[in-house]
Amino acid sequence: MANIQPKSKGSLKSTAIVFFLAAIAAVVIAAAIVFTNSKFLIKNEVEDLLEVYEAGEEPKVGTYYKVTLYYQLGDYAKKTTTKNGMKTSEEYYCAGLLDNRTVVSFKVKDKNLVRKFEKLFDATYDFFDEKIDDTTGYEIELTGKWTKLSESKAKSYYSSFINENGLETVFDVDHDHCFDTTSTRGSLWAAVIIILVVGVVCAVLGISTVSQLKSLNKQAADIENMTINNNNPFLNTENPYGNANNDNPFNTTNNGNPFDTTNTGNDYYNNNDNNNNPFGQ
Q1: Nearest-angstrom CA–CA distance, 224 and 153
Q2: Mean pLDDT over all residues of the chain?
Q3: Strand order through the sheet with 47-48
Q4: Against a cut of 0.85, is the pTM above it?
């Protein structure tokens, strides 16, 4: 006999697998983030960017560093985010000059930090104009993630800024990377937590899907068992009121029928010659 299976069994299996794979992926991604940035997340410790350069190494994309910025050459781009026509946030791209004479792009969003960059910009050009001896007191302690400068517009504006000011003739310029100050320790923890929550939700949905699948399988098995044992009330063709059933109260051959005229125990006689008929002659 063929197995009876719900039509959605295959799709439920696929759905459960997808949920569990998503849950595993979320855990792996969260673990990778924590492992890669364990010192930063747990101890709030990161390597100094200048020390990396001094060691003759290149900063690693996706790694968090700290740096003290003493010179700000100007902002070259601004990205505005809007929702329903209303401005929700602004991000500034600035060109900073490190102590090793390398120009690096900085991404800034925090309003207080933007104001510090503005003050450092003024102090930087006052120093270039020999109005002040140095920019001490205006320096900015920064922590951020070393990323690729991937946005095409920002990269184009950065190149134009470098060329227009002739910075490559005086300094070393990193054209391809950005020190992203918008990615903080708090935002990194938030990302890890969100990823883990997504993983937990996917795991719960996977378990729920498996539970539905088990329920459908049990229903299918119960129906199949009833069919095999002839206990399925919808598949049983035996007539409970068949003529062969001696319990049928309307069976005319049953001696227990009180209306059977052949029954000598019938209280209603049609034999007028019966001496027991109270109306007989």
Answers
A1: 65
A2: 81
A3: 47-48, 64-69, 140-148, 172-180, 102-108, 86-97, 71-83
A4: no
